[in-house]
Write a structure and sequence with these properties.
The complex is a heterotrimer of chains A (560), B (245) and C (337).
Chain A lengths: L27 H5 L4 H29 L10 H36 L8 H23 L13 H5 L4 H28 L12 H33 L12 H35 L6 H14 L15 H29 L8 H24 L1 H7 L3 H31 L5 H28 L13 H31 L61
Helix pairs in contact in A: 2-3, 2-4, 2-15, 3-4, 3-6, 3-7, 3-8, 3-13, 4-6, 6-7, 7-8, 7-9, 8-9, 8-10, 8-11, 8-13, 9-10, 10-11, 11-13, 11-14, 13-14, 14-15
Chain B lengths: L2 E2 L2 E2 L5 H36 L1 H9 L3 H27 L2 H31 L12 H5 L5 H20 L3 H38 L9 H25 L6
Antiparallel strand pairs in B: 1-2
Chain C lengths: L14 H33 L16 H30 L6 E8 L2 E5 L5 E3 L1 E5 L4 E7 L4 E5 L4 E5 L7 E5 L5 E7 L12 E6 L1 H10 L7 H11 L24 E3 L5 E3 L2 H9 L22 H13 L12 E2 L14
Parallel strand pairs in C: 1-5, 4-10
Antiparallel strand pairs in C: 1-2, 2-3, 5-8, 6-7, 6-9, 9-10, 11-12, 11-13
Helix pairs in contact in C: 1-2, 4-6, 5-6
Classes of the chains: A mainly alpha (560), B mainly alpha (245), C alpha+beta (337).
Chain lengths: 560, 245, 337
């Protein structure tokens, strides 16, 4: 019975992707012209964090403003700009690129045993496109702001709004191509770049989730790009595509917009599900329960997700038959998510569970995602949606999915792979504390909003009737705790880059290919091309992990 | 990533490299289909709603130029296909020749498009404040009997159309908005294609394409054919929907 | 009385109890599953906590029976939620025939309401308790949404010449309730709300006539407009004019050129005034000029109300392209969406 520490003292490898001297070495120029997927992931990490900060500041101001019924902080115009810019920054420039472009970019090639993505230059191009799009949007924020709501409904956005809609629309249009190219790169890479022995059913579930995400990116994003382009043209040249007074149809815009923007929520949540599917088996030290069901449910979500968009439009007066069909399909898309939650929970059964920080985040994810997903059932329900549509119930629901789900998964994933990315560990006790602060702060912020919504408080209100104040104050109080929950990881993760304990190649230990190489990995990921001869998440047949062949719960099977 | 000859460092074999590039281009074309799809949907819904106005708008297009352009593009697809074939069988000189021919035909197409746009401008058919479907029939001085008759027919038709669709001004404007958006986007794709062709011609003149390595020609070929196919749909939808004169 | 921190708004319409019951059902199912998952996670977390640093878990790869169970059982529950929701929704969309019709016009950032007798209100809506009310919604600019939490009703108000969204409800409890605009519509979106006052029918009648100074009867205004705008020169009552007679039009099936039929509801009448040539009645020439941009929303409402008022008079059968209302002629027209 070994009691030796599993993580002996390690030293960083001499050369790795961070200090590599290829190209022009460690200069800024070498970073800006890099085609190394790992460095590009870090470029994304930096720029996405900037947008998260910007969006976060807007969110803070929104919550402070709503402390009093009349609005405590800003004018109505400014408030409208705040929530619009919060939405645009968070959705298009934080949530959509966060996990795919940072963790996906960094990990997919390593996880499948490749040296890089199939198209490294296109990968770099995606980042520049993201930056250019981001600049347009920041320009719009800086010159007059944006007050249309992130949904850009016509004719408000195309005719009536006096804010800087055109640069914002152009920015999001441009940014769309960043998503498309990333998705394209992932799909091709997963198809053609797998190492010997890495069959489709040995792929980590993180890769399956990204495959599904990429499908949505390449099929949905072009549609929203063209839709926003048409709305922008309409605004610039006074055309009439969506303008009822010129014969256009404002509802057509909503159809086209949601055809992308509903699947887009799956771009945000599927990768987080992938992260959780990696974390749970690692810290329960057993194979994931129902691998093929989790993999297939990712694909099912991506496919069915394209056929539910009009559930955002139940109160537009759309035909009853259409409403019935879309409600039914919306219930259908809930099933694959349920399958995942059940399988994750079942994975814990008879595990050897540790409470390392990533696990706390992952379990928090399951709790919050479950609430978010289940309240989605109320919104998919035709009779109920009429009442709760466009109220704070919806706001609470999608924040549970997007923040409780996607962001929790993102932060959890950062904690899980941080030792791989930087080669160093962060203070575990502090990060466990941060995870719990995040969980509590989040619930306090958003749970009251479900009640607010059912009571009838519409969303996007800069002032509200006084009877809603108590719950709004609660929500704002929660937001201040939530802010601490985000700031803490930012601080200690940053601190750990220099002062953290050296992690070694496989600190947890985990079974994926990415843990078979150095931390941080060398530029070409592996010193020799790996050959995969084990099943995913298999702890029993992996003597190289240095674990007991079986825990006290499972007698050892030394013979196989 | 280091490059060994034609093989980029991230790949293990040339075959893998080729498979990746081709798959990548096909996936890109799928996104392009959806990209144009949004516009085709907008077109279809409005065409259904404003049947008459779209017919009127369509009739003002120059069918002769449109047909010539269609022919030019189909021909360019042929020369592109020939370029791919030449690369595959290793006829280096022919590759360059066919690529130049394709580029030339693409340029002709764009040139004719410019002439057409200019016509629309002269006829006050650019959406915006100056838009006027009546402008041409009101302001043209026919020189021949034939021209006068044509003009009278057109005026008659516009009158009839106004009876069924009194707001024909704004609905025809919708047609032209879509006409410019769709053909403009298509032309943009042609310009990108022309850029890619210039790049290929440069490589080809250096003799880079061999039967073993010709992926760039092949995937640019895929792109070029796709852009042609878009036009094959645009031509009837924009030019031919209401031809009876 | 509501407690200080209520969990649901007052139930003041026929829909409210159904919606709340549905909410309780779905929430119960959700709480059951959320609690189950949470308890399972916490239990497993402590029960199977790692005992030794190098211990691994039992290699269980899955169980098809369990997978089947947690696919089939949630599917059945989801189907039940869908079905119940659909039943309630159909009720929302199936307007009864005996409604009191009130026009509601949204514009940035106010609501203009017009009672059946022409009385105009701004950001106020008075309705009698126990009557089926139908709101006919139009927008002058962007998309708005009329939302009364206490009634659990909500409907988008969409601009465009061929659109009137309608919604119906039956207030069940007298009182004053908030209504809101719940589709974001620009700067003062949050201020675009007001109060619904639900009154006893007698009070309502008294209020209607008492504040009679408010406005002229829309039917009368419409009749005057009908003459002023020279509609009357073509739309002869006996069906011999250049345009179809409008007697008995409302609620009837109209045969269009090309063979299709439409039901002549408010949206059809509105479209036929603003864009007459969108739908041409069979055997008539498209002669009428469009009135889009020439009439205010209020004038369109007045004309529509006047045309609707012509329903009790004899229906011309010959050459009109308009079929008589099926069933009892004096009964109000059946409403179809």
């Amino acid at each position: 019975m070994s009691t030796a520490p599993l993580v002996p003292e390690h030293e960083l490898p001499d050369t790795h992707y961070l200090n590599a001297t290829y190209g022009s070495g460690r200069s800024i120029r070498a970073w800006l012209l890099t085609t190394d997927h790992k460095r590009i992931a870090l470029l994304y990490l930096a720029s996405v964090t900037v947008f998260f900060f910007i969006g976060g500041i807007f969110a803070t101001m929104i919550r402070i403003h709503l402390l009093t019924p009349g609005g405590a902080l800003v004018s109505p115009e400014t408030y409208n700009k705040l929530f619009t810019m919060h939405g645009v920054a968070m959705i298009f420039f934080f949530l959509i690129p966060s996990i795919p472009a940072i963790l996906g970019n960094f990990l997919i090639p390593i996880m499948i045993g490749a040296k890089d993505l199939a198209f490294p230059k296109i990968n770099l191009l995606s980042w520049y496109i993201y930056l250019i799009g981001g600049c347009f949007v920041l320009y719009s924020f800086g010159t007059g702001g944006l007050d249309t709501g992130w949904t850009f409904y016509t004719p408000l956005s195309s005719i009536y709004s006096n804010s800087a809609v055109t640069p914002a629309v152009i920015g999001i249009f441009i940014n769309g191509f960043s998503s498309i190219l990333t998705g394209l790169n992932f799909i091709v890479t997963i198809h053609t770049m797998r190492a010997p022995g890495m069959t489709w059913f040995r792929l980590p579930l993180f890769v399956w989730a990204h495959y599904a995400t990429s499908l949505v990116m390449i099929l949905g994003t072009p549609v929203v790009a063209i839709t926003l382009l048409l709305a922008g043209l309409e605004r610039m040249f006074h055309l009439g595509f969506f303008n009822p007074s010129m014969g256009g149809d404002p509802i057509l815009f909503q159809h086209l917009f949601w055809f992308y923007s509903h699947p887009a929520v799956y771009i945000m949540i599927l990768p987080a599900m992938g992260v959780v599917s990696e974390i749970i088996p690692t810290f329960a030290r057993k194979p994931i329960f129902g691998y093929s069901f989790i993999a297939a449910s990712s694909i099912a979500i991506a496919v069915i997700g394209f056929f539910v968009w009009a559930h955002h439009m139940f109160v537009t007066g759309e035909s009853t038959y259409a409403a019935l069909a879309f409600s039914f399909l919306s219930y259908l898309v809930a099933i694959p998510s349920a399958i995942k939650v059940f399988n994750w929970t079942a994975t814990l059964y008879k595990g050897s569970i540790s409470w390392d920080p990533p696990m706390i985040y992952a379990l928090g994810f399951i709790g919050l995602f479950t609430i978010g997903g289940l309240t989605g059932l109320s919104l998919a329900c035709l009779g109920l949606d009429i009442h709760v549509h466009d109220t704070y119930f919806v706001v609470a629901h999608f924040h549970y999915i997007m923040v409780g789900g996607a962001v929790m998964g993102y932060v959890g994933g950062l904690h899980f792979w941080w030792p791989k990315i930087t080669g160093r560990l962060y203070p575990k006790a502090l990060s466990r504390f941060a995870a719990i602060v995040l969980f509590i702060g989040f619930n306090l912020t958003f749970f009251p909003q479900f009640i607010l919504g059912y009571l009838g408080m519409p969303r996007r209100y800069h002032s509200y009737p006084p009877e809603f104040q108590v719950l709004n104050v609660l929500s704002t109080a929660g937001a201040s705790i939530l802010a601490v929950g985000y700031l803490l990881p930012m601080l200690y993760l940053f601190w750990s880059m220099r002062y953290g304990k050296v992690a070694g190649p496989n600190p947890w230990p985990a079974t994926g290919l990415e843990w078979k190489t150095d931390s941080p990995p060398p530029t070409e990921n592996f010193h020799v091309t790996p050959v995969v001869d084990w099943e995913p998440y298999d702890y029993r047949n992996r003597p190289d992990l240095g674990l007991a062949a079986g825990g006290p719960l499972a007698p050892a099977h030394g013979d196989d | 990533m280091h490059r060994t000859g034609e093989l980029y460092g991230q790949f293990q074999t040339l075959e893998q490299q080729k498979e990746s590039s081709t798959l990548g281009m096909w996936i890109f074309l799928v996104t392009e289909v959806l990209f144009f799809g949004g516009m085709f949907l907008t077109y279809t819904i409005n065409r259904h709603q404003y049947f008459t106005a779209f017919g009127i708008g369509s009739n003002t297009l120059d069918i002769k130029l449109g047909t010539i352009n269609t022919g030019v593009l189909i021909l360019s697809s042929l020369t592109m296909a020939m370029a791919v074939w030449s690369a595959q069988v290793g006829k280096k000189g022919l590759v360059t020749g066919f690529l130049i021919a394709t580029l030339a035909l693409g340029t002709v197409f764009l040139g004719i498009k410019v002439v057409e746009y200019k016509q629309k401008f002269d006829h006050h058919l650019i959406p915006g404040h100056g838009f006027d479907v009546w402008y041409q029939v009101d302001n043209t001085k026919p020189e021949t009997e034939m021209g006068k008759k044509l003009l009278d027919d057109e005026r008659e038709e516009l009158h009839k159309a106004t009876l069924t669709d009194p707001d024909i001004q704004s609905h025809a404007q919708l047609y032209f908005s879509l006409y410019f958006a769709m053909t403009g986007l298509h032309a943009l794709h042609m310009i990108v294609g022309a850029g890619l062709l210039i790049w290929l011609i440069k490589l080809s003149m250096r003799g880079r394409f061999t039967p073993q390595y010709n992926t760039p020609v092949e995937i640019v070929g895929l792109y070029w054919h796709f852009v042609d196919i878009v036009w094959i749909y645009l031509f009837p939808l924009l030019y031919l929907i209401d031809r009876h004169r | 009385m509501q407690s200080q921190l209520p969990l649901y708004p007052p139930e003041a319409s026929n829909f409210a109890p159904h919606v709340d019951a549905l909410m309780i059902f779905i929430t119960s199912v959700c709480v059951f599953f959320a609690a189950g998952i949470t308890i399972a996670i916490i239990y497993f977390f402590f029960k199977y906590h790692r005992k030794q640093v190098d211990a691994i878990g039992v290699p269980i790869h899955g169980d098809p029976r369990l997978e089947a169970a947690w696919i089939i059982i949630p599917s059945i529950l989801a189907l039940a939620m869908f079905a119940w929701g659909a039943v309630v929704y159909v009720d929302y969309r199936h307007t009864p025939s005996d409604t009191l019709d009130i026009y509601v016009i949204g514009k940035q950032w106010m609501w203009k309401v017009q009672q059946p007798n022409g009385l105009k209100e701004i950001n106020e809506l008075h309705v009698p308790v126990g009557r089926n009310i139908r709101l006919i919604l139009a927008s002058e600019d962007v998309i708005h949404d009329f939302f009364v939490p206490a009634f659990r009703v909500k409907m988008d108000v969409i601009p465009g010449y061929n659109r009137y969204n309608t919604m119906w409800f039956r207030p069940t409890k007298a009182g004053r309730y908030h209504f809101f605009c719940s589709q974001y519509c620009g700067t003062n979106h949050a201020l675009m709300g007001g109060w619904v006052t639900v009154m006893e029918p007698t009070e309502y009648a008294a209020w209607l006539s008492g504040s009679g100074a408010g406005g002229a009867n829309p039917v009368a205004v419409g009749e005057k407009l009908f003459a002023e705008k020279a509609c009357i020169t073509c739309h002869l009552a006996n069906g011999t004019g250049r345009a179809p007679s409008l007697n008995g039009l409302y609620g009837a099936q109209v045969l269009l050129a090309g063979g299709a039929t439409v039901t002549a509801d408010e949206a059809y009448i509105r479209e036929s005034i603003l864009q007459p040539n969108a739908k041409i009645v069979a055997r008539y020439e498209p002669l009428m000029p469009p009135y889009q941009g020439q009439l205010t929303e209020e004038q369109v409402i007045a004309l529509t109300e006047y045309i609707k008022s012509l329903r009790s008079q004899p229906v011309p059968v010959k050459g009109s392209g308009i079929a008589p209302v099926r069933g009892d002629e004096t009964a109000p027209a059946p409403e179809k969406r």
